Amino acid sequence: MITNNLLLKLKDRSSANIEQVRSALLSMRGKIEFLRDLKVEVNIRQGAAAYDIIMIAQYDSMAGFEAYLVHPVHVEVSQYIAGVLAASASVCYES
């Protein structure tokens, strides 16, 4: 199992914008066959160094993860995210 944790810091850190981004990420659920599990959580402890959202996604294999990255649904969501993103970080691991 491959797990990818993606941290997002948004340009507009308002609650409404954070929820809109969370909804966009969750919209991928059930639409990408390679995506086994998807959680999107909002940070409850804000601060200058804090990120706003964490997306935790799981895949059966690295090949599945790579296929997810180029899937049209993911590409569309990632293009939207790129427009609202101030910074991101990720950790991908196998368990």
Short characterization:
The chain has helices at 15-26, 62-70, 72-84; strands spanning 2-10, 37-42, 53-59, 85-94.
Describe the model.
There is one protein chain. The chain has helices spanning 15-26, 62-70, 72-84, and strands spanning 2-10, 37-42, 53-59, 85-94. It starts with a strand and ends with a strand. The protein has a single domain, classed as Alpha-Beta Plaits (2-Layer Sandwich). The protein has 95 residues and is α+β, with helices and mostly antiparallel strands. The chain has a four-stranded antiparallel β-sheet with strand order 2-3-1-4. It contains three helices and four strands, in the order βαββααβ. The protein is globular and about 35 Å long. InterPro entries: Dabb (IPR013097), Dimeric_a/b-barrel (IPR011008). This is Stress responsive alpha-beta barrel domain-containing protein. Residues 2-93 form the Stress-response A/B barrel domain. It comes from uncultured Sporomusa sp.
Radius of gyration based on Cα positions? 13 Å
Task: Give the helix level as a range of percent.
Answer: 25-40%
Which regions contain 5 or more consecutive residues with pLDDT less than 50? none
Q: Categorize the overall geometry.
A: globular
Overall pLDDT confidence: 97
The secondary-structure element order is: EHEEHHE
Proportion in β-strands: 25-35%
Number of helices: 3
Question: Mind telling me which CATH architecture this is?
Answer: 2-Layer Sandwich
CATH level-1 class: Alpha Beta
Protein name: Stress responsive alpha-beta barrel domain-containing protein
Organism: uncultured Sporomusa sp
Domain Stress-response A/B barrel: 2-93
InterPro entries: Dabb, Dimeric_a/b-barrel
